[in-house]
Design brief:
elongated, ten-stranded mixed β-sheet, mainly beta, 108 strands
Length: about 1350
Amino acid sequence: MSSINSGSYSASATYDGYGTSAARSVSTEVWDYCPSLTTPDHATLTCDPTDVSTATDATCTVVCDDGYQLQSSQSEFTCSGGVWEQNSVENPDNKVTKCLRVVNPTRYTVTISVGYTFTRLANCEDYYGDYLRIAFYYHMSDASSSISCLSDGDCYLNEVFFEYDDVYDACYTAGYVLWLKTQYVQDSNTDTDRSDELFQEVKTYVEDNEFLPYQLMADNNCLTDCSCCILDSCILAPSTVMASLKCSSYDRRKRDVDQPLREHGNSTIAAGAVWERGVSCSSGSVPDSHDRCVVCVKGTYETDGSCTSCPIGTYQDSDEAILCKTCPPGTSTLGTGATSQEQCVGVCQLEDIKYGVSEPASGWIVQLGSPLTVRCDEGFTLAGESIAVTTISSCTTMPSCSRVEISAHSVHVLKNTALTLACKITSAIPPSACSWHFSNSVFATSSPVSTEGHLYECVLELEGVKEEDSGSYSCSALLTDQTSAPSSDAIHASIIGLTFDASNMTISEGSDQTFYCAASVPPESSVIISWTHNGKSVGERTQASTNPAIGVLHLTNVSPANTGLYECHATYLDIGTQTSEASLLTVLGFLSSPSDVSVTPGSDVDLHCEATVGFVSWKKDGVGLPATTDKVLKIEGVAENDAGLYTCTGSYEGEEITTVARMYVSDQGITSHPTDLTILSGDSANFTCQTNVDAIFSWYLDDVLVVSSSSAQESYLYTGPLTSRANVQCVATTSHGDKFRSHVATVDVVGVVSGPSSVAVAEGGLAELVCVVQGDNLQSLDWVKSSDKTIERYNVEVYKVAHITTSILTTQDIDSFYCLAVFGNGIEIETPRGAVTRTSVTLEGMSVSMGDAVTMTCSVVGLVVPDFISWTLNGQLIRTDDGTSLETNMAHHTTISELEVPQVTEESLGDYRCIASVLADLSVFSSDSAALELLGFVDTVTDVVVRRGDPVIISLSVRGEAEVTCDLSEGMVAMAEVETAGTVTAYDGAVSDISSSTHQVDFSCTATYGETSIKSHTASISIIDEPELSVPSSYVMFGATATFSMSVGYASSALPVVHWRVNNDATIQTHVTYSSNQYTSFLLWPITENVEIEATVHHGDVGGATVKRETIYSYGVQEVRGPEKALIGGSYNLTCSVAVATDNPIITWSKDDQQIMSTALSYFDDSQIVSILNVRLSGSEDYGTYICSAEFPNNEISFSNFHLTKTSECMVPEIENAVMAATAASVVGHSAEVSVLCGTETVVLKCSYGSWDQTIVYCPQQESSSLILQLITGIVVLVIVIVAAALLFYLYQAKKNNRTVSPQLERPDSVADYKRNLSHLISDPVLQSTTNNFIDEAAGVVHGNQLALEPIDLAQVDN
């Protein structure tokens, strides 16, 4: 654990059946302890405290063993808060200073300055200076016998020191004193430093012995003539000095030097001497501050005079190294100072963790697959954890913390409507899918949609939700890197509405029926339950706040009029209305029934019996009548036997009802009965009733006596306007009390029972219109839109019960509608019109300042007048405004409600909504959400980061109507409106007049509202220059370590990341530096070949990447090749390959520190010079190390060597006039013998470790030769020797005068010149002829100064 795990932890105990019994929390702080340190080799590590792994602060000291010293001056290391001071990207393992082994130098150099006093100001460049500097060498040579270190052979006078090119290398002045310098070298017995002793002896000599330049020059033959100084005795003096001496006469030289020294009081005795000591160390070692040498140990290499830790990406597993070894492609070390290739692993350089930080931090190098701790920002997680441990498997994708948010924690949705769930995902790694959870199980997925930047949104819509869909929902996301984003907080969804048994039912007339409806009620809310019958309100309303709320509709003694559709409505005044499905109640009853009737024989009679539903059947005196299911039983020509008791039975779905009537047949009675009629609603009906006996007539309308008349045999009934179906019967009563009853006549009233009522709907809402018509033989019932007379055939439901027909239209069109009914008898009727109107509720958001008093206004516009208006804040009911405080303007159909906020606080900010409720039809209308927000800037005015040259735009948004201006520390900007959305206005401003050297401009903006100004905080414009890749040079010498750097500007909010590649292989930066706006990544790379450097900058602020490439060409000696085996007597070529830069080098060969007067031949081959040195092995002294050096015009020297190793084999010699013993081999092994007949003598040659025990060059001829032949042979040999000497002198002069790469060539000005000169030289016919003749005729080899001339096939030389 580490400090990032600090925090509050809690635990609770839960028992099944009993609940949570206890909960405890504890605040825990986790300390970071200091990591343990590794003791370096050959050292002691002492720490306080001893065990640092239990301390947060500690100090450790490194002490090297005897014979070792620290690599750096730091020996004490401090840990604070669990972090060591040396911990860095380059040193992630907290390594301390290494201990380096101390050794004696390989050489001491003692540079001594001797001063001579003049009577005038001394000058190193006049005749005095020139002369004295040349002669001083001979003065020091004379002192050799007085210096014991030279006498013992431990030291020598460094003659090369006098081969200076600059006057001041050997001479300097201080007023009247001229100081001359000399140098001695001690390279033997260096265990004893004799520098001090040597200096004292030299000082004594120069103070005791006169310095006489003229005499010294004369003694060394340097004054005989003007050209004498080019001889070897004076070769040490520079040619520039010689030129001035040659131009003076002998007398002047003498006068200017020795005589003035004496005549004018100038001292010939040294005025004093000073010295300085230098040390030389072997390769892989460096001098220390005590004039000793320290060996660069494993993990370090020698560079620039110090032992430097191997850069990241390299290692060194040996001591005394001058280069580090590069890790295999695709791998790197985690830090500097690696000592083994095993430390080369797959690595990745960490980039910024989006929405979090990592340990190790961004920019550090970690091994692929190693643990990485990520601490996410507040509200963000990685793999569900705010502090997570993960691994890096690829450098292309960094982990990203993510967050999943929901828009609301609770939501109330009406049953059977749509539940919309939404969550927002913030992640730098795009999500691939969203999962939705319900009751801890995934039940659905949805696809994320990118909104802006790293923001994504997932939406899930559930249609037709039920009560069982209530519960907790959450959202999670799967990212494209196969990691999971955290789950969101729970969304508590309440599916509210009602439960109603909407099954259809049939009951008998006169029964009772009760309907029940249960509605769910959200917390702190209430519901109104109401009922409708065929779309019309019925029963009483019930208002309740308990959950659930129960509504009851009780019907008693039902009649056919109660038949129809019953619906339950649950109205939530702050949400809306939920309507149940309709329940069809069918009342089985008689719309018409027969009554007792008296008829005369021969007359006709109709018995009416019509049930509300189903069918009817007839019986007479208990016996069923066949085929009598019609609602009218017609009896024509009544006879005596038709008299009796008639029974009508109505049947429907198992229910039966019965009615009876008796028919009387007599000679006296009613002769003409009332007949059935069909009339329009509102019309009157006329009926006639006749008898054959005087009687008093009584008329009954629906069993109600409506009129009676005096005694007569005929009566008429004139009804008033009828609006519903009616039954009519007349009763005739004689004076004797006899009653005669007519049959019942039916009046079929055709008309409108009810037309559609006007309905108000919200934007996009649906209106339900109902019309009811009556009358038999209805042919069609259609809905007609008034505006265009079109017939609405969709979304229409029709219900018919007997002669009553109900039609329901559902529409969202804003118009007026009516029903058109067409009956079979040609009657057409139209219902009154019902209008569908729009009611809108508007509430405007406001931008305010903290502490303001504000009034929010809710406006309801429409034909309906709300009974009250409710207000909610962030979904919570805060106020209900009833009719007493509402302002209604009937003329403009507007109702106003105002909400006063006396003082704006944090609690009063948020989303407001107002809801208008109409109690008449329980309709509810809601406004959109309106925000009460603070005036000023919508979001923080953000920093702007752009590349130089790109347009600079300041973008911001403010609430309310304001004037926006911005002040810049440099430049100008004019803000202009871009767009307005609600109360928010967006502004853009193009910045101009920023100088090309400016990297940052500070700015702030002001929104002015009248006399009130709101100023933003200060932001900045960061201008990023084009990244720059710096290389030391296009050409770098072999073996050198080149430093490359990539510099890039950045904004402080996000550091860039640089990735390096060398020859297409990824590698790791060595170290980085950065200031407030400049980031530089460095790469150190040993140059062993031509390399292409590629640096890719990933910009953390402006986005994207920039790639820079450079090619570095290596130059210098690449290698020296030679034979695997070399035998004495053989001739071998050593080949030196030199890569060239822009100018040609001077190539020289040397052996054992002595330059060879070389016959090496050089030629060009593929952008390199190849120098070939032919070596003839004449003896053991010719073995050894041959060095090829290339000196370039910039005075850099590159070299490589090849070692000719002696073998134990011998080459069989070729001896003139000798007869060799028969042998097939040209090479024999050690101890082998070869017999040679030389003249008359047999000589046995024995091979001993590569050399013959004796040498025979010539044997006398077997036959005597004449004196003339011998003389001619001698002359030929002499001529050959003379010509060879001349050729050598020619070659020497060419080398001296031109100092060319090859002795025969003039100094070229370019590679092309070099090739051209070489081609001319090789193709010269005279030189070819001469050279070939010399080579063919020469019988021996001329030796001297390691010079051997051997045949060279010029034809094989590459032009």
